[in-house]
Fold these 3 entries.
Entry 1:
Amino acid sequence: MLIIAGLGNPESKYLKNRHNAGFMTLDGIASTHGFGPWREKFQAAISEGLVQTIAGPKKTLLMKPLTYYNNSGLAVRAAADFYRVGPEAVTVFHDELDLAPGKFRLKAGGGHGGNNGIRSIAAHIGPDFRRGRIGIGHPGDKNMVTNYVLSDFPKADAVWFDALTDAIARSFPLLAGGEFDAFQTRVTHLAPAPGTADE
């Protein structure tokens, strides 16, 4: 079982916040690949499906922790324990202050970079899971970060954000099949970050 977690906060007032980029990314994957209806389990909203990959169909669990962003590890640990999988079977999509808006990077392991959701997951299952980092940029002052991440994406950002989540969903079989470099490359090709189309 692959476990794909998206970080966010569960209340409707947070729905379109930058901090809910992970939740929105999972909605796109579920819709594109015909996953089952969302239901509650593991202190999360979950949706299950089969993803067709080069290595054959992969059973995949999408999960949006309902424990609030900073305690996401509680839900991820519950699912990982239930399916008896290690961190190598887990990928977490989340907003990333340290990447320019629209940039996307997939990485395995490493530190939490001050992201409390990633910190929580690492504390519960260890650091060796993959992170799908969705660049939202930095407001320029650490005192502004909380308001920034808990604010909705402005309309101008919807162009690149919608393109990026669509690219992640369309490319997802590569990730599910373990073709991690190919996944990163295809996402970046389908949805180059603003101002980087000629790179």
Entry 2:
Amino acid sequence: MSSRAIPLSVLDLCPVPQGSTPAQALHNALSLARHVEAIGYKRYWVAEHHNMTGIASAATSVVMGYLAGGTQTLRIGSGGIMLPNHAPLQIAEQFGTLESLYPGRIDLGLGRAPGTDQATAQALRHGRGDGSDFPQMLDELRRLFAEPKPGQRLRAVPGAGLAVPIWLLGSSTFSAQLAGQLGLPFAFAGQFSPDYLHAALSAYRDSFQPSAELEKPHAMLGINAYVAESREQAHFLASSHQQAFLNLIRGTPGPMPPPVEDMSELWLPHEKHQVMSTLAGTLIGDEQAVAEQLADLLERTGANELIVSSSIFDQTLRKDSYSRLIKVAAGLQTGV
């Protein structure tokens, strides 16, 4: 059993259930944030995606302000901001504003993928490139957050001189190595890229150089989790996410479907393999089964934190899954 309490956080794409609206999805996010704050979760991150009718968190910094204003102690962050979609000055100003309003509670998680399709990425970036200059953009952003130098003409106001923690996000080894070289915390997208998990964590730890931000590597692992009263119920709840991803790979993304008892009639064998392989980074079952899975995951990865995505159609059952998961984590720490 684990001898330490693993910090748990929430990764929310603000899913829009079928028959609902983006407005209700955002209200659901605040309701969930308040719930997990009350039971001991550490962070609540929202993700930047665009041109997706099933995801309501495109204006990520705006959503963060809504969540921060409705909570008290929870750290609110981006999981992540896709930096190549933005001018670094804009992000420094936005997150400087958030940090000014909610001091000590804001995290800036950065990714380099577009978070959307090719046409939408072009509309967002307006010729700013394909993200290959991400290290240079990151350097510019960090300089904007630093204390201004005498005579410096370009400043982020607010933003300059504010200690907004920067995390690098990744689903492969590129950002892992960059985070290590810069001495920054790293969050790995295990919820959809399980095949690269160990390679990315090894690359991060092997390349790590101590910095003013960190003395030693700090890795947070993204996972999916569906915890319910029974294993059958947990698999039932997870079918909404499976259907949503199936629709995505078919090129027909949309609102999150309600769960189904049997997926076998909905996908072809090769589609099932692709969905299940991509979503292999999932904790699923009743509390006993998830306790075993979680203990094994922590033993294999040595993750410092977990950030959990639970795309569950019913809001009440979604809250219940997060409640059960933190109970499981506490039980591992105490050896119960």
Entry 3:
Amino acid sequence: MIKNYSYQNNQPSALISTKIFSLAPGYLSVAPMLGITDRHCRFFLRQLNTNVLLYTEMITTGALLFGKNDHLFYHDAEHPIALQLGGNEPNVLARCAKLAQKRGYDEINLNIGCPSNRAKNGHFGACLMTEKNRVAACISAMHEVVTLPITVKIRIGIDKQDSYAFLYEFVDTVSSLGGCKTFIIHARKVLLNGLSTKENREIPPLDYDRVYQLKKDFPNLRLILNGGIKTLNDIQTHLKKLDGVMMGRAVYKNPFILAQIDSKLSGNVNPLISQMAVIEAMLPYIKYELSRGTALFHITRHMFGLFQGLPGAQKWRRYLNENAHRSGANTDVLIKALSYVQY
């Protein structure tokens, strides 16, 4: 059942219908994606699933503490929501963690998997996999100042340090010395030299068995799998052996899968959310954001894949892409684009 929205304190507030799932909270999450999972994307995805855990884009500690923008802003409707941080200094991360807790975030995640040149040059992200003690100190420092869950997102290896023993030692150290109880594991190693960020998401082979083995060796830790998960069958397969799954670009290309997952996995008899119900829920949000000066395209670009696989989906995407960025574009553009879809 789709949410209804009222306007309080000058922003939408969710009136969420209570739904009971047999699935553990957080069993499914949408990956933090730079340039994608901004607040508009997260609000849109929330219309499709009330259970999924949403992540911010990675925010560096410097941007959070010294940037001009309010990087922590989100709508209440986005809960449950996790803040992903990029950084390497325990005391600085602790300061950021306190800000996140004050703003009401549900989880803080430390990025130890980003392979970008920016992360490499700033000495955060994936390069920290070679510094397990520093990572443990970062997690511990945040635990000392907040009560929120502190998690890490990692790879299974880095460059030539890609043995199972290397991964085991990293998890053992960060969990025992840092107190981290949840690891989100992209089941590919990262190659910092020779591959682009995009190539690091696709070229190093996936090794799910390594993550499965990690769960056997650390049964008391919560392990979430990321990488190459695209279908309901994929999710079902991995949940038999792990505590959760994280999906990324597969959800962005076909977001309506979020409206189907809970029902199919839990046997929930509630009718599935329809694409039209999602559009209806987004309209007041879009009108509100337009009144604040937000450009329509900043919101609708996240909605391109809503009708994936349906007749007229390509025309829907094309019309939005060509018209939503125009000066003065409003919800009429969305309604017109909708006329091309057969659903």
